[in-house]
Design brief:
Length: 493
């Protein structure tokens, strides 16, 4: 489990004068508001938190969402925010919930449970119980989460959607649709109003199940709710359901609604980078180009944006336009990202366009950049298609030397090159090639031994890709950037 970026902050501010995790008042209240020195994102984060009417409500969902959106906050900024909140005597118990959440992320659930047990009973508010429930939900501990939820019910605290959202999301994440539906029914029976996070979770759950009827029902409820504004991502999630189902008209209608919400969004960059590939999945080049021009006209486009645009055009089959975008990127980039030309190299490799693939590699080298494993591997595939196996072997060796941990690819090219060395015959070269595959974790030691035994048998002169499968790297990384929209809970405040 990755440590939370909030974890160092408690060590920092817990030692500061006037900041206590337990007191409801600061030792020396500030004479002027700290907010006068705040700028930009810190003010927006404070604005989201301060909108909560209940001073004992948990703030960790807001902090989690802030982090998920890739938004920064430094140590000093958070300290000032906490002192500001304490100056107005707010969120005393909420700080307990944040700390509980941090302990679970850094030290594990058992430590969080121990911390929870030692919290004085008078400080065990709904926010603290929800933080414990959140810990169990993140760890996907369904039974413990359900027991905590039952405790919340027994204490009479399950009165708002806050008490249900974590468990709903856990059921969605673990595929327990029956339990999710039962919890929704409970909310309806108790007349507990959904908030935007509830709607977001349910929309994502029904979308993942391709339950069109439920998706349309929850979307209609959300649109009719006067206090729950939808975000562009919510319509994009629904659009993705229709894209997968091949319902172009409904998908385009959802994308249109999503676009209409971009100007008011704090995440416009993310919106453009989501919607461009969705239009590409529908084959709508005009919309891809139109949105790209809007994106460039409103803000600087970084490497990720160029990757998405190039892969979107390649998805449509327009490699000529993709290469023009690549040239535009080359003329503007300050940090060379080899993943961008790799998309073109791979596309040309799939089409068997050897000259074009090699030309891109040469451009990368001329720019002073280093082709990576995927660059050489894609080029090797083209040479294999042109029956230039000797060259392919050379290129795959370069690919193996450049392999980084976690890179995945299929075994067909490796098997073809190994077979070439076996049949040549070059047994020593084949053994050296197998060792290199093992050293780079492309095949396991067990697979290595099996292959070496096979080579040592005089009647064995070929290896299949299936024989190279094991616990090493499997699958094919030739995946497009045109991926499904990430399902999120709720939208922006």
């Amino acid at each position: 489990m990755k440590p939370s970026r909030w974890s160092p902050l408690f060590n920092f501010y817990s030692r500061l004068p006037g900041v206590s995790l337990y007191s409801t008042t600061a030792k020396s209240p500030p004479s002027t508001s700290h907010r006068t020195h705040w700028k930009g994102t810190l003010n927006r984060l404070y604005g989201r938190i301060s909108k909560i009417a209940d001073p004992k409500a948990p703030i960790h969902p807001i902090l989690d969402q802030w982090i998920q959106q890739g938004r920064p906050v430094d140590k000093v900024g958070l300290v000032f925010m906490i002192k500001e909140l304490k100056h107005f005597k707010r969120f005393d118990n909420a700080l307990q919930s944040v700390r509980l959440d941090l302990i679970a992320k850094v030290h594990g659930v058992e430590q969080a449970e121990s911390y929870f047990d030692n919290i004085p009973i008078q400080l065990k508010s709904l926010g603290v119980y929800l933080a414990l429930l959140n810990c169990y939900a993140h760890a996907k501990l369904v039974e413990k989460a359900e027991a905590t939820m039952q405790k919340i019910r027994d204490l009479g605290l399950a009165r708002t959607s806050l008490a249900y959202n974590n468990l709903l999301n856990l059921y969605y994440q673990t595929g327990k649709r029956d339990k999710l539906d039962a919890l929704v029914n409970e909310m309806e029976e108790k007349r507990i109003q959904c908030n935007k996070f509830t709607y977001g979770i349910l929309l994502s759950a029904y979308a993942a199940a391709s339950d069109f009827e439920a998706v349309e029902k929850i979307l209609a409820q959300w649109e009719s709710h006067p206090d729950c504004r939808l975000d562009w991502i919510n319509y994009a999630v629904v659009a993705n359901v229709y894209i997968k189902a091949g319902n172009e008209d409904k998908a385009l209608a959802m994308l249109k609604k999503s676009e209409e919400l971009i100007p008011s969004s704090e995440r416009r960059r993310e919106a453009y980078e989501h919607l461009v590939p969705q239009y590409a999945a529908l084959g709508k080049k005009d919309n891809v180009v139109r949105l790209w021009e809007l994106y460039k006209g409103q803000m600087k486009v970084y490497n990720k944006g160029y990757r998405i645009m190039i892969t979107s055009l390649l998805k449509i089959g327009d490699s000529e336009s993709a290469e023009k975008i690549f040239e535009e990127w080359e003329s503007q980039q300050s940090v060379y990202d080899v993943r961008i030309p790799n998309h073109l190299i791979a596309a040309y490799a799939r089409k068997g366009l050897l000259d074009k693939a090699e030309a891109i590699i040469e451009r990368v080298i001329l720019k002073g950049a280093k082709p990576d494993a995927k660059s050489w591997y894609s080029l090797a595939k083209v040479h294999l298609d042109h029956d230039q196996t000797e060259k392919a072997v050379e290129l795959t060796r370069k690919a193996l030397l450049a392999v980084q941990p976690g890179w995945k690819t299929n075994k067909d090219v490796w098997a073809a090159c190994l077979n070439y060395l076996i049949k040549k015959p070059d047994p020593e070269g084949a053994k050296e090639y197998i060792k290199l595959l093992t050293d780079k974790n492309v095949i396991t030691v067990i697979t290595q031994e099996r292959l070496l035994n096979k080579i040592n048998k005089a009647d064995s002169n070929s290896v299949t890709a299936g024989e190279m499968e094991g616990d090493g790297l499997n699958g094919d990384e030739e995946a497009s950037e045109v991926s499904e929209v990430e399902v999120r809970s709720g939208g922006e405040s």
